[in-house]
Write a sequence for this structure.
């Protein structure tokens, strides 16, 4: 194998991979705004339609752990074409779906392709660039990770207003087809054949473990922690994952190698990233609720107030990547986490007088801080791994971030629900003690005030969580790569299409 970064990186195919990953990530949040329209059109209730998002996440959680094996076993070309092909077929099926069950099948196909694209892209970037340049290129990846989901609600709201929910799929399909064609023409591999077999028990344990955990935490946010199904699935998930870890550590060639956690900076980066992902969802989840239910903005306005933050994050991610190459990850992470803490505390002081402009500014500064944390922290950890461990490192990152997002969302929804109910009881009791006979309008107003209190408390808890990540960030160190691992093949594009 050529030394990593010794040849000019294949920028063309990296661009194609990034576009594919971008539309896959964008697709994750596009559908949230469209759920009411889908319910009306296909005649399903909220509990049923939620499977379009829950099912997508479950398939991701089941598929991502297998990507370490897939990346080692198969060529980048084969994996990319399979992933973008599945995503494309799923998009077309969803666009033409006559009934809900067909739409759900389309979403599952999309998810199976999407799950492969991001770990594959991260692995290609790691083997294509030396450590000294990885911060910059991973900064561009950070743009995808945060920009696509952030603009999803705004873009979705506009598309649905102009067309209908099917346009969310029909507009993406041509881009997905173009990515497939470009990958088919230009992507080649120098990868040697690897004699590996996928251990069936590993797949079963991983699927049941991560799938149960994700389902349990996702359901907890909707039906409560005391629901028997929630308790059973979380317990099954924990026990199965414990068994999975022990089994993997006893294998010579594990499907997902947990020995990567012997690298301290990688382990630290995973913990910090999970904490940030847990708390990050507070902004994406709570701000639209506050905007629409408390200060009565339209769905389009609620989406637009998130847009400046998404743009700033997109602009700053590559810049912070260059700063990472120059100064390392700790300075960026500490500064970014400090900004996240301050802005999240500011969001815990919301009121009925808070304006859309104030929200947009606070969120934009918050996203500026996030751009200094997300990819720099992950890149610093991955840099310590030997080359042959990259597939395991990227698969572990993506899997645990999915789990952290589900846990964080469920936890914050629970905090919101508990605190809102408490404020509702307090405010109602105060009014009754004052001898007031509450009308329906007054009860509704009390409900809105209670929700405001719950949202503020949830942001406060979120800020406390981020403080833990800030403390951990002070222990980050700039790392050198462990080169004791085996080599990994690189990729190339058709020489005729890449200028030397």
């Amino acid at each position: 194998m050529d030394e990593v970064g010794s040849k000019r990186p294949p920028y063309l195919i990296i661009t194609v991979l990034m576009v594919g990953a971008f539309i896959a990530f964008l697709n994750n949040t596009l559908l949230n705004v469209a759920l009411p329209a889908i319910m009306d059109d296909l005649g399903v209730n909220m509990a049923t339609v939620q499977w379009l998002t829950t099912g997508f996440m479950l398939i991701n959680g089941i598929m991502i752990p297998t990507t370490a094996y897939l990346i080692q076993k198969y060529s980048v070309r084969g994996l990319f074409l399979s992933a973008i092909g599945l995503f494309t077929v799923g998009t077309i099926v969803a666009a033409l779906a006559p009934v809900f069950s067909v739409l759900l099948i389309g979403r599952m196909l999309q998810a199976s392709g999407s799950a492969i694209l991001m770990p594959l892209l991260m692995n290609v970037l790691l083997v294509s660039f030396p450590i000294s340049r990885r911060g910059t290129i991973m900064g561009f990846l950070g743009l995808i990770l945060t920009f696509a989901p952030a603009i999803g609600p705004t873009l979705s709201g506009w598309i649905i207003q102009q067309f209908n929910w099917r346009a969310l799929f029909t507009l993406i399909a041509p881009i997905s087809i173009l990515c497939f064609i470009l990958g088919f023409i230009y992507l080649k591999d120098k990868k040697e054949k690897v004699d590996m077999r996928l251990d069936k028990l590993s797949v079963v344990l991983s699927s049941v473990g991560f799938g149960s955990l994700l389902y349990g935490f996702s359901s907890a946010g909707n039906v409560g922690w005391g629901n028997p199904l929630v308790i059973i699935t979380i317990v099954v998930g924990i026990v199965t994952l414990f068994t999975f870890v022990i089994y993997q550590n006893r294998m010579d060639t594990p499907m997902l190698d947990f020995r990567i956690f012997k690298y301290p900076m990688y382990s630290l980066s995973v913990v910090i990233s999970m904490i940030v992902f847990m708390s990050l969802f507070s902004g994406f989840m709570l701000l639209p609720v506050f905007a629409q239910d408390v200060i009565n903005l339209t769905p389009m306005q609620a989406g637009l107030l998130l847009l400046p933050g998404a743009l700033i994050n997109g602009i700053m991610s590559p810049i912070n990547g260059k700063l990472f190459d120059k100064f390392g990850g700790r300075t960026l992470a500490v500064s970014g986490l400090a900004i996240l803490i301050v802005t999240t505390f500011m969001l815990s002081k919301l009121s009925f007088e808070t304006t859309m402009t104030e929200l947009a500014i606070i969120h934009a500064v918050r996203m500026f801080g996030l751009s200094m944390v997300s990819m720099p922290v992950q890149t610093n950890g991955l840099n310590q791994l030997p080359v042959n461990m990259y597939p395991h490192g990227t698969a572990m990152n993506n899997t645990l971030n999915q789990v952290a997002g589900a846990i964080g969302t469920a936890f914050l929804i629970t905090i919101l629900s508990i605190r809102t109910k408490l404020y509702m009881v307090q405010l109602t009791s105060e009014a009754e003690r004052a001898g007031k006979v509450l009308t329906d309008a007054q009860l509704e107003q009390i409900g809105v005030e209670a929700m405001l209190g719950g949202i503020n408390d949830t942001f406060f808890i979120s800020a406390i969580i981020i403080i833990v990540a800030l403390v951990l960030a002070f222990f980050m160190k700039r790392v050198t790569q462990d080169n004791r691992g085996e080599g990994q093949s690189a990729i190339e594009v058709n020489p005729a299409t890449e200028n030397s």
In short: The first strand starts at residue 187 and ends at 189.
